Amino acid sequence: MAGGRQLLLTLLGVLLGATTLVAQGPTGTVTGRVIDGATLQPLEGVTVTIAERGALTRADGRYLIVGVPAGPQTLRARVIGYAEASLSVVVQADQTLTVDVVLSAQALELQDLVVIGYGERRQRDMTGVVQSVTSSEFNTGRVISPEELIQGKVAGLQVIDTGEPGGGISIRIRGGTSVNASNEPLIVIDGVPMPTANRQSGNGGLSAGRNPFAFVNPEDIESITVLKDAAAAAIYGANAANGVLIITTKRGSPQAPRFSYSSSASASSIVRGPNMLNAQQFRDVVAEHAPNRVSMLGDSQTDWQDAVLRTGAGQEHALVMAGARDNMTYRASLGYLGQRGIIRGSMTERISGSLNYSHYFLDQRLNLRANLRGARTHDDFTPGGGLGTATVYDPTQPIRTESGYYEREGVALTPANPVAELAQGSIDGTTTRGVGSLELAYQTPFLEGTTATLRLARDVARSERLTIMPPEMFWQQQQGERAGYWGRSRPRETSSMIDTYVNHERRFGLGSSFDATGGYSYSIADGEYPFSERFGTVNPEPVEEVERFGGRETKLASFFGRTNITLNDRYLVTLSVRRDGSSRFGPANQWGTFPAAAVAWRLSEEPFLPLPATVSDLKLRASWGINGNQAIGDYLWAPVYQPGDEFTQVQFGEEFVRTIRPSAVDPNIRWEETTSYNFGIDLGVFDDRITGSAEYYLKNTDDLLFVVPVAAGLYVSNTVLTNIGSVRNQGFEVTLNARVLDGSRGGLGWTAGLNAATNRNELIAVNPVAGGSEQILTGGIAGGVGSMIQVLQPGHPVNSFFVYRHRRAGDGRPIFSDQLLDMYEDINGDGIINQNDRVPFRNPAPTWMFGHTSRFDYRHIDLGFTLRAHLGNWVYNNIASSQGYYNRLNEQGGPYNLHASVLESGFQTAQFFSDYYVEDASFLRMDNITLGYTFPRLRGQREIRVSGTVQNAFTLTGYSGVDPEAGLLGIDNNIYPRSRTFTAGVNVNF
Amino acid sequence: MYKKLFLTLAGAAALLLGAACTDITTEPKVGEAGGTAFDRPEAYREFLAKLYAGLAVSGQQGPAGMGDIALIDEGFSQYVRGWWQLQTIPTDEAVIGWGDESLPELNTMAWGSANRFIQAFYYRIFFQIALANEFLRETSDAALATRDVSAQLRADIEQYRAEARFLRALSYWHGIDLFGNIPLVRETDNLGVRPPDQSTRAEIFSFIVEELNAIRSTLPAVGAAQYGRADQGALLMLLAKVHMNAEAYGLGAQYAQARMALEQVIGSGAYQLAPEYMRNFLADNHTSPEIIFPIPSDGMRTRSYGGTTYLVQAAIGGTMPRDDYGVGGNCCWGGLRTTQQMVALFGGEGGPDVRNSFYYTTGHTEEVTALGTFTSGYAAPKYRNVTSTGEPGSNLEFPDTDFPMYRLADAYLMYAEVVLRDGGGDPALALQYVNWLRERAYGNTNGNITAEELTLELVLAERARELFWEGHRRTDLIRYGLFTGSEYLWAFKGGAVAGQAVSDHLKLYPIPASEMLANPNLTQNPGY
Question: Predicted ipTM?
Answer without folding.
Answer: 0.94
